[in-house]
Design a protein that fits this description.
The protein is of the alpha/beta class and about 375 residues long. It is built from 15 helices and ten strands. The strands form three sheets. Strands 1-8-5-4-2-3 form a six-stranded parallel beta sheet. Strands 6-7 form a two-stranded antiparallel ribbon. Helix 7 runs antiparallel to helix 8, helix 8 (about 210-225) packs antiparallel against helix 9 and helix 10 packs antiparallel against helix 11. It holds the Pfam family Fe-ADH. GO terms for molecular function: alcohol dehydrogenase (NAD+) activity; metal ion binding. It comes from Candidatus Pantoea deserta.
Length: about 375
């Protein structure tokens, strides 16, 4: 069913199930063409690459290692190196790897530097052209394998975190193999997982939401609730949890592409332009004060959606579903990522607030409300 839904949604072929990485080599062999691999260094040092290496290396012309969210300059350098030599791309890794590969695939077919096409700062629309891409996520959080945007980050020159975006940028093939999550550190599992939750949750509460997107989001949220407490277990329950989170992440990508996101991402996207914090952790830290705000909300649509969510996910009715959800998320987390010491200085806070927005939230949040969210999520120090 998920494959049919995916094809209806984005013309993407979705291969899923534990061990589905085994389908990569037959896919490449069925249509041999110059193929470039994007991956993280951990993949090259891990057991999956060791198993695939001999055959995979015969089917690719090289690889690029992605160590962080790619900048426009890095993408331009890759394009310069490989233009005219690559006809297809494979991306195996977390969200940063997938986004870098998506940006590279698109820019290989565009003549101008990457920054010219970026949302927020660019002056040129992207065209409906990109190289074919096979996306294999090794984390469950961003849902990048299902989205039409490639996130690009420059924290030094133009200070921006923005997307290249077009429906054709959805990878042609996604391989969702939950076994690739095995062995990931608890901190990675939990911060990626809360990113998936935030995508689903903000899309569920979006002003652009429809019955279709809300029901998709609830499906993903149910998978998340099953997965969240057991992500790191080394048994059948852990295997089922990781598979559920992989599905939640993919559905989060579908939902955010359809209904958009809210104030959490309206802040997180700007913070990510100046601080090298893990995006999932940023979203998770902002989620908890947002849930406090939500608990105080009298907006009728938010109230109704939260009551429905409570009933659908937990089978109960609670006078304060947002507070119940916050407590459940914190109590069931495999590690308390929000307690790690991180700081923002007051100048950084003002920079973020000058650019942050409520995106598709049902309520337009004030600058003071967003300031309070930041102050509850991080320790604020004096400007340097």
């Amino acid at each position: 069913m998920s494959e049919n839904l995916s094809e209806l949604y984005s013309n993407q072929r979705t291969l899923s199930g534990r061990g589905s990485i085994s389908q990569l080599l037959p896919l490449l062999r069925a249509d041999t063409q110059p193929t470039l691999l994007f991956c993280g260094r951990s993949f090259l040092n891990g057991p999956v690459y060791a198993r695939l290496k001999a055959e995979l290396n015969d089917l690719i012309i090289g690889y690029e290692i992605v160590a962080h969210e790619a900048s426009p300059a890095e993408i331009d350098a890759w394009v310069t190196r490989w233009r005219g030599h690559v006809d297809r791309v494979v991306a195996i890794g977390g969200g940063s790897v997938l986004d870098a590969a998506k940006a590279f695939s698109a820019m290989m077919q565009h003549p101008l530097p990457t920054a010219r096409y970026l949302e927020k700062v660019g002056d040129t629309p992207v065209q409906a052209v990109t190289l074919p891409l096979i996306a294999v996520p090794t984390t469950a959080g961003t849902g990048s394998e299902a989205t039409q945007n490639a996130v690009v980050t420059d924290q030094h020159d133009i200070k921006v975190k923005a997307s290249l975006r077009h429906p054709v940028f959805v990878p042609q093939v996604a391989i969702l193999d939950a076994d690739l999550l095995k062995g990931a550190p608890d901190s990675v599992l939990v911060t990626c997982g809360i990113d998936a939750f935030t995508h689903l949750f903000e899309a569920y509460l979006s002003s652009k939401g429809t019955l279709f997107t809300q029901q998709l989001a609830l499906t993903g949220l149910r998978q998340f609730v099953q997965a969240w407490p057991a992500l790191n277990r080394d048994d059948a329950q852990g295997d089922a949890a990781r598979e559920a989170m992989m599905m939640a992440s993919w559905l989060g990508g579908v939902c955010l592409s359809s209904a958009g996101l809210g104030v959490i991402h309206g802040i997180a996207g700007e913070l990510g332009a100046i601080k090298p914090f893990h995006h999932g952790e940023v979203c998770g830290r902002l989620l908890f004060p947002f849930l406090d705000l939500l608990a105080e909300s009298s907006q009728p649509e938010q109230q109704q959606l939260m009551q429905t969510l409570q009933q659908q996910l937990f089978g109960t009715q609670d006078a304060q579903p947002a507070r119940f959800l916050k407590a459940w998320l914190q109590q069931q987390a495999i590690t308390p990522f929000w307690q790690e010491t991180q700081t923002l200085n007051s100048e950084e806070v003002e920079w973020i607030l000058a650019r942050a927005n409520s995106k598709n939230s049902l309520i337009s949040y004030s600058r003071q409300q967003m300031r309070d969210m930041l102050a509850q999520a991080w320790r604020i120090t004096a400007a340097v």
